[in-house]
Amino acid sequence: MACTKGVVFDVNLLENSTLEDGLAGWAAVGECTALSVHNEEPEKVPTETINTVADDYKPSGRYILAAGRAGEEDGLRRAVAGALKPRVTYRVAGWISLGDGAEGSHPVRVNLRLDDDDECVVEGGAVCAQAGRWTEIKGAFRLKASPCGATVFVQGAPDGVDVKVMDLQIFATDRRARFRKLRKKTDKVRKRDVVLKFGGAGSISGASVRVMQMDSSFPFGACINGGVIQNPAFVDFFTKHFDWAVFENELKWYWTEAQQGQLNYADADALLDFCDRYGKPVRGHCIFWAVDNVVQQWIKGLDHDQLTAAVQGRLTGLLTRYAGRFPHYDVNNEMLHGSFYQDRLGDDINAFMFRETARLDPGATLFVNDYNVEGGNDPNATPEKYIEQITALQQKGAAVGGIGLQGHVTNPVGEVICDALDKLATTDLPVWLTELDVCESDVDLRADDLEVVLREAYAHPAVEGVMFWGFMQGHMWRQDACLVNSDGTVNDAGERFIDLRREWTSHARGHIDGDGHFKFRGFHGTYVVQLATATGKMHKTFTVEKGDTTLVLDMDV
């Protein structure tokens, strides 16, 4: 873990955040004409927070109203007390609402300005605020050097819209404390008590037993492409440490049909052959992509009927060719951030893509897939908006079978990730991290950040798998996220990943008791048991599946 010597955790660095001293220390920004303190009606004060707080904690109910705003740059500010330390993850917390009468929802952002420099601004979080309800801020930041001073700003929402701010806080997060909680949660979610029953109890009592886990029911995977599978160091790490694969580009429509009518499935076929050789299942990414700037020019030139025919042709061609080959499909990628097909073919087209995919390849699990949902910093991609999208698709007959969180993260906060997972879990759909890369130039911090994400994912019962969006330097979309250096050496982030996989693997040794039983607690997955008796050794495989009760298995000798 990165050094946090001298850091005091969970102490608010914004004085008078609960406004006990009125507006002392607070000031208006820009053309904002008035700041005033108000008390919220008791029944409207938020009652829950994602932060670690005392059982009797509740927000103060006092808030600042920033009125007379003439634009998005207008708002309020106050200085941060004390020195912010480098290489420490700070949380930005509190609640935001809009003034009475504001229509719809609007983004409100919390930023830090360092050393009174207008050019040195650090993003501290963003919410999609609305009148009549309080939205919790779930921001975070980290600095590379200690500033001489810092000021927090709350800005956003259009002119004429009043902004309310309650209990704004900045505090250092204690990752070690969070990890201790997650280890306990992991034990409950991913492990099970097992009793192996051996026949002939009297004759084999005291015999030596060894239990070894061969694989896990929780897969980790990585993206591959035609170039990296020619690299021996890449292949070695991939085959040793990953269970699944996903193609970086080779299945995307802009790759398989860059020019109209000129189909190229050879590259995808070659990658499938590679995965078949090593026994790696493959996620199908992606059938369509909703974002305008990744759509081929020839598609953009089609009229309504031509585009309809092209969409059907893509579905039929891809899914009949590869029926049964891809256990998962990302059907229309990033629909929270793009609407190319919907804008041209109507509101039903996204659900149609799901319905038709399910008809042509009924064995595949069909996913939505998007980014920033787990980060708490994108007003366009909140868990609530993702759930609304999923519900709307399901109401139109779309067989949504899974939720993809891409996981392109920087400076992650465990509580924020867990909050997003908790909300998405209410859909009763499995969640996968589908494109994980944790970006940080300092490889020690990158290892810590990676551990934050992986522990949150592994400890959450809704998550069923994690896919990395590459892992080798020089062969990744985001270069400061690699686990393996270009020369094949494993860096600290890669070692952290290996260590976690080792931690999440169970082995046990011991002896059969007088009842002919051997008991242990193990992670879900496939095992081999070796029994050594006077007459020789016996090997047998068994599987530990999810369950709340003790798993009792008969081992016939």
Automatic annotation (TrEMBL):
Residue stretches making up the GH10 domain: 208-500
Entry annotated with the keyword Repeat: yes
GO function term, MF aspect, one: endo-1,4-beta-xylanase activity
Pfam families on file: CBM_4_9, Glyco_hydro_10
Entry's transmembrane regions: none
GO BP, sorted A to Z: xylan catabolic process
Keywords tagged on the record: Carbohydrate metabolism, Hydrolase, Polysaccharide degradation, Repeat, Xylan degradation
Annotated InterPro entries: CenC_carb-bd, Galactose-bd-like_sf, GH, GH10, GH10_dom
Source species, domain of life: Eukaryota
Signal peptide: none
Sequence similarity: Belongs to the glycosyl hydrolase 10 (cellulase F) family.
Name of this protein: GH10 domain-containing protein
Species of the source: Oryza sativa subsp. indica
Lineage of origin: Eukaryota, Viridiplantae, Streptophyta, Embryophyta, Tracheophyta
